[in-house]
Amino acid sequence: MMGLARDLEAALDLVTESEKVTIVSHIDADGISSASILERALMRERIDAGCLFVRQLEPFSIRQIPRDGSMCVFLDLGSGQQNLLEAHGFSRDRVFIIDHHVSQPCRDPYREVNALAYGYRKFSAAGMTYLLAKEMDPDNVEFAKLAVVGNVGDMMAREDLGLTGPAREIVKDGVAHGSIRVMERDLNCYGISTRPLHIALSYMDDPFVPGISNNSGGVLRLLQRLGVPLRNQQGDWSVWEDLSDEHRRLITSAIAQQLLANGKTHERLLTENYIFLDEARRTPLRNAGEFATLLNACGRWAKPLIGRAVCTGDRGGAYREAEHMLKHHRTVIRELMEYILDTGAIELSHLQYLHVGGRFPDTIVGIGAGLALSRLKREKPFLVMCRLPEDTNVTKVSMRTVEDVVRRGADLQAALVEAVAGCGGEAGGHRIAAGAYIPAEVEEVFVHQVNGILAGQLDKTGACHR
Ligand SMILES: [Mn+2]
After folding, report:
1. pTM higher than 0.85 for the full model?
2. In angstroms, what is the span from residue 101 Cα to ligand 1's centroid?
3. What are phi and psi of 402, to 5 degrees?
């Protein structure tokens, strides 16, 4: 803790003594919110700042960074690319890294604050950037909201059903500031501010609720039985956030009973949802999960600057464009899901897989895989491959599974890392979701290798075969 406070202070000196700062950040929700926090904090200090968003730090994108003597602050990336920075001649006194990905061993490391170095496994770049901003000016607590979006976007709340550790302290800042309301022990369901209630409930997949998940008829019968109206008094679709406490309680306990009746645990039924009180109701900016999706939609469709404009307060043209991106994002994901379900996955003993070729942008294939999994055999991890538009010799692999399978011993990240070791690819991620880049010619071998590794992981824990 002492270490972090001291390191943040040093970072503060470094950044605020600069005349000009170039922010280089990642295109996802965490990267966009991190960059927006830092940019706004620097504006307050009257420090000139520019933003560059990249999909990843590689030789091509690194050449886009202006070399004008400004201080380069890398957000949500950089720790793992220090040798690349060195190879491109970035001097150590003009670079600062704020990241939460594993650091690359480097002869002479660049200066960085990396959440992992302080033992924080669930603290995203936006969280760390927020701590730095707060160090600059206590008024920057107004950005607590953006820090929460970044953390939620990076799934930091998923495993523990709420933010923990230093991210939890940021939530408290937001509550004290009056911009965040925590809905404690709330239903673990996505789309609480914008999705029509019956749709939000039928999309629940963590936990998977028999008779409710993927079952719109079941949901409608449930709501009717409980007397919860599908539309509000204005005639609009009801949304979860706007229901009365009584209706929310009725639905939650009915779903808990449904799980119980099917012999399922209800330990993942409740979560914490974060509502942003200063945003309009029934918009995707109203809660952390949907806000993060909006930013991801902007980033994945190559418009990170639109996301950043929304983060810096634009509710006019940029916001309308962001809403449009979100709509488009959802449409393409739905098409991808339909394609996966129509085509069907090929089953091996311990996984199922599918190659979608070049039909869909690689930036959304992982998301589609996660969503499709709830409609496939959930007990088998799902591996999706796709071609990369910029390099047909490389295949991108996205893999997803569910909590139950992780609990039985599956670790997708470890499986992909082990499998690429033999074929010269790259892999990373988490136990529940991971990805890799592999040479296109080894696809078949690779899939079977991953299958074998998963078999070993699940056997070790004494799981039953099917
Ligand atoms: Mn991140």
Report:
1. yes
2. 8
3. -120, 165
